[in-house]
Amino acid sequence: MSDWKVFSDDLIEQLPLIMSGLENTLLLATSISITGFVFGILVFYLTLSQNSLVRLFMRGYISFFIGMPLIVLLFLMYYGMPTIGVRWSPLTVALIGFTLNIGAYNAAYLKTAYNGLEQSELDAAQAQGFSQFQTFRLIILPQVLRLSVPAMTNQVIRNIKDTSVAFLIQYTEFFARIQELASTNFQFFKAYTLAGVVYLAMVSVVVLCSMWLERRLAIPGTHRPTRKANSRY
């Protein structure tokens, strides 16, 4: 029996488990992208606080979680915290750990975009009597979100790929099921190639959605003419 026959038979046999793992991957990737986005906005808002201690704490938070490897954070929460009596399910650990990590990155992206805003806009809002929260909600946030679309897209792509480390804390996502498939017939090259193709397909969907979103949010008058318009050159 050929290697491909063995691999395809095992793949068909384990397909329900693999699809279940893919569902878990999509669930985790979607959840952490949403929670990390919302938490990132909250952290970003606090970095603009008028309280210097709050700003200092938020800068420390961002630096700490960007600097800490994600796998170390997950291991600390899943394998380390039970030694002090705190036990969470793999999904809970993944949601909390990823959210803390992603929130720090998203806050950094938003703060970078904020640094590029015109100070005169903010001064004008203050002169008009806007509160700090009104200025943030009506002027700052819409602009920084628009400017951060490429960075946020890259983060979502990273989220999808990073879910593959969740199997190390016993979360049975897609890559964990591929590992089981590979260990069944020792066709590691075929199994991991299949995994790469599936991850590439998921990332491609995100990229296409991002391109559509960027066109929707593009500032009028900033669209560059295409090469086709100057085809004679």
TrEMBL record:
<keyword id="KW-1133">Transmembrane helix</keyword>
<keyword id="KW-0029">Amino-acid transport</keyword>
<protein>
    <submittedName>
        <fullName>Amino acid ABC transporter permease</fullName>
    </submittedName>
</protein>
<feature type="transmembrane region" description="Helical">
    <location>
        <begin position="191"/>
        <end position="213"/>
    </location>
</feature>
<keyword id="KW-0472">Membrane</keyword>
<dbReference type="InterPro" id="IPR043429">
    <property type="entry name" value="ArtM/GltK/GlnP/TcyL/YhdX-like"/>
</dbReference>
<feature type="transmembrane region" description="Helical">
    <location>
        <begin position="91"/>
        <end position="110"/>
    </location>
</feature>
<dbReference type="InterPro" id="IPR035906">
    <property type="entry name" value="MetI-like_sf"/>
</dbReference>
<feature type="transmembrane region" description="Helical">
    <location>
        <begin position="60"/>
        <end position="79"/>
    </location>
</feature>
<keyword id="KW-1003">Cell membrane</keyword>
<keyword id="KW-0813">Transport</keyword>
<dbReference type="Pfam" id="PF00528">
    <property type="entry name" value="BPD_transp_1"/>
</dbReference>
<dbReference type="InterPro" id="IPR010065">
    <property type="entry name" value="AA_ABC_transptr_permease_3TM"/>
</dbReference>
<comment type="similarity">
    <text>Belongs to the binding-protein-dependent transport system permease family. HisMQ subfamily.</text>
</comment>
<keyword id="KW-0812">Transmembrane</keyword>
<feature type="domain" description="ABC transmembrane type-1">
    <location>
        <begin position="22"/>
        <end position="210"/>
    </location>
</feature>
<feature type="transmembrane region" description="Helical">
    <location>
        <begin position="26"/>
        <end position="48"/>
    </location>
</feature>
<dbReference type="InterPro" id="IPR000515">
    <property type="entry name" value="MetI-like"/>
</dbReference>
